[in-house]
Amino acid sequence: MSYLFPNYGRWPIRITKGEGNYLWDEAGNRYLDLVSGIAVTSLGNVPHRVKVKVQEQLNTLWHCSNLFEIPIQEKLAEKLVSLTCGDRAFFCNSGAEANEAAIKLARRYAQKIKKQDRYEVITFEQSFHGRTLATLTATGQAKVKDGFAPLPDGFMTVPYNDAAALRAAITDKTCAVMLELVQGEGGVNPASPAFVEQVQALCAEHDLLLIVDEVQTGIGRTGKWFAYQHYNIEPDIITMAKGLGSGFPIGAIVGKEKLAEAFGPGTHGTTFGGNPLACSSGLATLETMEEEGYLARVAEMGAYFMAKLEQLSAVRPEIVGVRGKGLMLGVELAFEVADVIAKMRERGILLLQAGPNVLRLLPPFTVETEEIDRAIAALDDVLNTVTHTV
Ligand SMILES: *Cc1c(COP(=O)(O)O)cnc(C)c1O
């Protein structure tokens, strides 16, 4: 009997330790971690440089309310602005909170700055934006909404990679479009360049804000700081969280200067957001990635992993397709993947799923080619043992 709510379908291993690319369970078994806490521990488990900075901060100041100016928060904001097309940052504690802030900012900008009666946010099928009431409403998956009615008004979902459907859905109530550039939970689905450029053009034509949800794709995961940087676009708001703090909970939005007035004093806030411990983890994560050249490494290891998956796919009819960007990879099988994931786990390799038929690989940026080879060999072997009909 557990004292926890049973809201997670948990795997039956009890994790107690992490170091680099590995996790250990209570019994002492070691696992190659290709999950990274769902794209969180991008520098591996307990990364040394981040640990040292957070330890220094632990000795100095843990928490300080946003009633005061917080130098380390300003420093992290300056860093994020320098890495993006945005001008201002707001800090919170999770991805859902970052998206919630973006939705609130878009509505308030329309209503208070532009003096328009607009509030609707358009999102896409198979998207995932979080578990708060507003962000689950924004999410394009019915299962996330089941049993939580009534849901807030002002959201509309249209097919992904379909600019004509977006164009047809825009009304005089629309204030923003919110987009994942590679859908994570929804199946590792990249947006096509033509679609993304059309979304930006439609936003410009109809005077809508373009929000990119980079909670999973951000902070180097796709081989650039942010996935939008693979495309020829400039979003108005970028949301982020997972990889920002190497495991310390932190979320943020970065937005254009024109939005600043819409979030004046008293409009929005959170007690813990941008707390010094969280900011020290964020700053140390970004500095480590920058100084140690991790973006190039993600591109290189991502290409290596992708090439190996494509080789495997060529000889394996069970694999329907491989896709992704950088170290965010999806392998679609011709059948449900749960059994494959369990068997990989028995071989000491941890993987995720994204929808019933897609294996999701989110390795740490520190992953080695030898570890990738080992994962590929294990997958090849496991595919021999699962019973299925192709
Ligand atoms: C995980 C995720 C979220 C939600 O983040 P939480 O920190 O779990 O609230 C939102 N958007 C995307 C794209 C995500 O992958």
Automatic annotation (TrEMBL):
InterPro entries, per database record: AcOrn/SuccOrn_fam, Aminotrans_3, Aminotrans_3_PPA_site, Class-III_PLP-dep_AT, PyrdxlP-dep_Trfase, PyrdxlP-dep_Trfase_major, PyrdxlP-dep_Trfase_small
Protein name (Swiss-Prot/TrEMBL): Acetylornithine aminotransferase
Similarity annotation: Belongs to the class-III pyridoxal-phosphate-dependent aminotransferase family. ArgD subfamily.
Entry's Gene Ontology cellular component terms: cytoplasm
Keywords from the named record: Amino-acid biosynthesis, Aminotransferase, Arginine biosynthesis, Cytoplasm, Pyridoxal phosphate, Transferase
Primary localization class, coarse: cytoplasm
Signal peptide per UniProt: none
GO biological process, alphabetically ordered: L-arginine biosynthetic process
Cofactors: pyridoxal 5'-phosphate
Cofactor details (free text): Binds 1 pyridoxal phosphate per subunit.
Miscellaneous notes: May also have succinyldiaminopimelate aminotransferase activity, thus carrying out the corresponding step in lysine biosynthesis.
Record pathway: Amino-acid biosynthesis; L-arginine biosynthesis; N(2)-acetyl-L-ornithine from L-glutamate: step 4/4
GO MF term list: identical protein binding; N2-acetyl-L-ornithine:2-oxoglutarate 5-aminotransferase activity; pyridoxal phosphate binding
Catalyzed reactions: N(2)-acetyl-L-ornithine + 2-oxoglutarate = N-acetyl-L-glutamate 5-semialdehyde + L-glutamate
Enzyme class: transferase
Top-rank taxon: Bacteria
